[in-house]
Every structure is written in C-alpha cells, then in structure tokens.
Protein 1
Amino acid sequence: MTTLFDPLPLTRGPALKNRFMLAPLTNMQSHADGTLSDDEFHWLVKRAEGGFGLTMTCAAHVQAMGQGFPGQLGVFDDKHLPGLTRLADALNANGTHSVVQLHHAGMRTPRELIGGEAPLCPSSDSETGARAMSLDEVKQAGDDFIAAAKRCEQAGFHGVELHGAHGYLLCQFISAEINRREDPYGGTYENRTRLLWDIIKGVRAECGRNFSVGVRLSPERFGMDIGEIRRLASELMTSGDIDYLDMSLWDTFKEPEDPSFKGRPLVEWFTGLPRGNCRLGAAGKLTTGESCQRAMETGLDFVAIGRGAILHHDFPEKVKADAAFKPIALPVPEQHLVAEGLGPAFVSYMKSWKGFVTEPASA
C-alpha cells in the first residue's frame, strides 16, 4: 500500500518528497498591483518549511482583467518577476516542488477590481453583467496563460497548474450551461474544452521539457456535468501532456449529486480512470491523518490540503508523527493563525468563514 510519505516522481520536474500538496488557497495578501507581499511570501515559505511535497500559490491571475479577489497574486506582467523569483528561490531551497496556479476569473471578476468594466465570459451573462468575449479575446486569454507559464518558469518555479475549476474562466468554457458560443470554442464538448487544450499545448511548446504542468478540475456545481468531467479527466491523464490532475471535490467521500452517479464516493469515479503516467490527487475535507490515508487507499497518488494547512503550517510533519492526527478544534483564536504564518489580510479573510475564528468577547 502506498503511504503518505513515499516519494512521488513526476514525468517532469523534481519528485515530491511525500504525497502532500498545499492546495491553492485564496489569502488576499498580495499588493494591489499583483506584486508579492512579505506576508504572502512568509505564508507560503512557512508551508514549504512545514514539509509539503508540493507547495502551490493561490490562484494567480494571468490578465489584469481576470482578477478574482482583492490582494491577488499577479503573473500577467514582468513587474511581478522579482517577487516571483524571490518566492521560487525560497520554496525550492526547502525541497518542495514549487508551483504557481494560473487563473482567470472570467465572469466571476468583481467589477470594482477592473475599473468598473464588464467582466469577461465565454457568453454574455445577465446575472453578473459579464460580456461575451470576441474570438480574438479568447485567443488572447490563451496566449496570456502561456506567457504567464513562461514567466513562472523564468522565475524558477518547477511548474504551473491551470485552474479549470470553481466556475472561473476555463471552467466557464467547459460548461454547456454558461458557454453558448457558436464558434470553435463553443457548442460541442470538443469545442468547449478547446481553450484548455490550446493552453496545455502552448505551455508544452514554450516551456522546458522538465517543467511540470497540472490541471485542476471540479466535477460538480458551476454548470459542470460529471460525465463530461470524467471524460476530460481521462483524456487529460492519458494525453502525456500533463503531469498531475488535481480534483477539487469539496467532500472527497460524499456521493455525487447527479442521481446517475450515486452508489459510491465521488473520488472513486476518478480513481478508476486510466491515467497513464499522470498522477491523480484530490482535495475535499481531507483534514486529518486518517482521512488522508483513507483517500490514498481509494487509489489517489497525492492529497491536497487546504484547511488543515491553514491551521498547521507543518501538517505533513504532524501526520508523520501521529497517523491519527487531528487539527486544532474550531473556532481558533486569532493568535493561533498569526503564529501559523497568516498575515492581517489573511486573518481578516478567515474571519469571514463562519465558525473559523473565535469571536472576541463582548464588553
């Protein structure tokens, strides 16, 4: 049985020293122009020091127009290179596989972050006020993902992950509900997945042979069809073009929402797929040593840790010392999060998560 502490070789880039990936976590700590802050640097490097085999940034936007949240890390301009280089150097020095997650929020871009302009979407969307992208804008978005990957490679990162989940731009293209285009990027499944494949092929052509590429998908919500996502997952993993697939499941062991896929845990609809030399991991309520090992026993190659990593920078080391490790109980004092390397902006964001941070005593 594969354990959480076996090394994990990838086709490209350095092997992971264990099976723990730091999930890409929104933290709102970068500067308004997307340049790296000391707080974001400290948060990420502390996780690398804490033993994560792969350390990934938050979603980093590849276009100024694609910003998803305040204080988001940027990768759309060479002005971001000094901070990215500093971060890559520090992560790599700690023996972790260093990755930037590449992201465009699409119709989920808040207007106030882009000067009041309408956000971009595959098709117009009345609810968000997003406008449909022109064909040239679609191709430009693809080019900007590729340019961002090259920038990350130049900075010294081992690889990038393409964010195709959670209702952001690449996910919007995949969705038959959201994407109503009548050109080569809409309509059929092949057309709706075309932009993702264009980017993967472009990164492979433009970046070095030892540069890792991962993809994040989510099989439910945001107009996703689990049958289509299983098909896409299988095609991605057997293509030889990506090194790992990161499935964001929200709850790894729950049954799917789709009635036709009931009867077994969501994760098992993906662990049974052919995967060639690609590695498969998942995120979704993997917060204890026991749940992480249970996830591995379903056939995963690695686990992505979010909440557990916020609460404990050294989550992998805690599990290594105690296979039954459970994180500190919620809610936690603000001081605990500060001690775990969260800056003021991140702590403030965590206070918006119901029941996560202890409420101050009333006077």
Protein 2
Amino acid sequence: MALHDAASSETPPGDLASRLGAVHNGIIDAAREAGRDPADITMIVVTKFHPVSLIEALYALGVHHVGENRHQEAQSKAALLADLDLTWHFVGQVQGKKARQVRAYTDVIHSVDRESLVTALGSEESSIDCFIQVNLTDDAARGGVDPLNLPALVERVLATPGLELLGVMAVAPLGAEPRRAFARVRELGEQVRTQAPTATALSMGMSQDYAAAVLEGATHLRIGAAITGNRPVLG
C-alpha cells in the first residue's frame, strides 16, 4: 500500500484494536519515509461524540492522549475519567466566557487564535500548554489567526503568564492538497521560532491526511474516525 493510501478517508474495517494498530503502522511508515523517529510524534485520539467506555477501551490499548472539541462533553468525560493517566487536549474553538472552565480540566489547548482568548486563559497560579491556531483559508469565520497577525499573537502569548507556547496548529483546507498546506504550516512554525525558540511543535494532520502531515514535520496528530470508527447515531 502506498504511503498516501495509509491515511484513507474511509474508516478502516475491524475492531478498535485493529484500527488503532493500522494508524500506528501508518505513522511509522510515514516517519520512516521522512527520516524521523516515530517516538517524536504524539498521536491524539479525538473522541468527540463517543462514550466514556470507548476512551476506557483506548486506554487499555495504551492510548494516553485524548482530544475533545466540545466543552461540556469534554468537561464531563475528564471528570468521569479522572482516575486514568490521560492527557486531555482541547482541539475545538474556545469561547472566551468558557476559557477558565476549559483550562481547569485540559492539559493542552490547540486552538488559541485571538488576543481576547489569550487574556482569558492567562493565570498567575498555574501553567498550561497551548498552540496558536492559524487559519489557512480566506474565510475569516473559520478558526485560527490570519498568518499576517501571527507574530503579534505570539508576542501576546509570550507576555501572558500561565501560557506555555508549544507551537502552531492548523487544519488543511477542504479541497487543498494536504502536503502543500502542511508545508505552509511548517514555514509558519519556523517563523514562530524566531520569536519563541522553544515553540517547536506542529499540531496538524487528521484521519485523512496524517501521513502528509508527518512528512512535513507534524509532532502532534489529531486522529478521530480512522481509530474510533464512525460517530454514534444520536437519538
């Protein structure tokens, strides 16, 4: 199977363990092609709309990084699974009025995209890791900061207590060639490192395009259906 077929948009057949194994193998293959160590890549399994029991099953299979993008659902799951050694990643848009609540249960926020949110997330008491989300489209309504405004937002994050900048996050635009989009993210990450040398991480790549993301240097992959299967049908 060709490398770019490893991240098919179709949900792989089989049970949870086999789907997880298939994605693990796809990451290893892509890392090998890129001359990278797979151990340097964090796979986050996005479990939105799935029950707590699925996260427990993932944990039993060795998954420790879980992603959610809806505050109320994420808050509830984190509370129910507080006894598990999980790292919670918030990958959706954060409402300013909910920022303090999201901060309370999340370990990493991937979607910092505006100065007002930076202010809301700041804290003198504790620190949280974060990514700045960049918008790769011309649609200002989509999440993410315009690349032209990225340097100013980086400065704001660096000046705000309680935030540790890991790097940049982005979603490949629909219809775009993923690897080209991720190459742009890599360039923006290099730009950010001129201001924040330790912000070396790149959060990019999902179920359908994670192989291309690995080839362009992704350090954090946000993978949902390729591992979890289709979302449950809600009544």
